[in-house]
Amino acid sequence: MIRIEGLTKTFRRHNVLDGLSLAIAEGDRVALVGANGAGKTTLIRCLLGEYTFEGTLLIDGRSPRRERCEVLAGIGFVPQLPPPLKMPVGELVRYAASVSSTARDAITDVLARLGLDLQQVASKPFVKLSGGQKQKILAAIALGRDCRMLILDEPTANLDPAARKVLFDLLAARPERPMLISSHRLEEVVGLVNRVIELDRGQVVLDERIAAIGSLAARHACHIVTTRAEPAFASAMREWGLTASAHGLGWHGSIAAADRLRFLAVLTRFGGLIASLRIDGEEEAVDQANGAPLVIDRESAHAAFDTG
Hints:
Layout: E1 2-11, E2 14-24, E3 29-33, H1 40-47, E4 54-59, H2 68-72, E5 75-78, H3 89-99, H4 104-113, H5 118-121, H6 131-144, E6 149-153, H7 161-172, E7 179-183, H8 186-189, E8 195-200, E9 203-209, E10 219-226, H9 231-239, E11 243-244, E12 250-256, H10 260-267, E13 274-281, E14 294-296, H11 298-304
Parallel strand pairs: 3-7, 3-8, 5-6, 6-7
Antiparallel strand pairs: 1-2, 1-4, 8-9, 10-12, 10-13, 11-12, 13-14
Helix pairs in contact: 4-6
């Protein structure tokens, strides 16, 4: 699907991409990781045809520079930094729907799931919106269309926890779609991908396939018991869609496979409250080590969450 050979991009005599070569096949869902300045965003911009470069880069046999319109027609893209567009949001959504032959309702439906009502911002210039609102609109435009491939550059930037959860749910629900997702943190996207490519100084330093954590579309049943009621904990659990028991000390619900590690990271802030924690699959128990449910009682919860 994507073939790259000897890709080199230079800025002010500095090779940001330095002879990079790799191939991405039809079924690959790739986490592109690396420190700031490793070349992730530059590689993405080359894929989108924004930069000239040395070497070979083809997407489905087409050059993104010479055949940019044809290449971009099959790509849904979420940038790290929103463009400074001055057009009203409603006009932007209509334009994006028309050029991609997408139903406007498909975009507005995704936008609503991300927590933004289009009618509330339709008349506002895109550039005047908050960072989170801009990111939701750009994500909705990319995910609302029936594109061949998704390219996402730090797509969770500026998103609130509830919107991040929905975004990962939407991505996990499309396991058949090839994806390249750039992130500073592998743990954020590990549940979504089957391959990890790490860049450093413009070169590939790691290219490994990883086992999926359960089905990408799977959800894990979650049961938590706390030692006391805590408003901050209650607020966090409601953001994740969990429901409280009648006495307020128990919480239950389900967590998307793609969000499992992120959810556990949230729980680290409340380790002292947790009496017991159980996470397993709704269809089958899932654990990276041996396939058993993840069960943490009060004593092991304190150890796991490093609360002393």
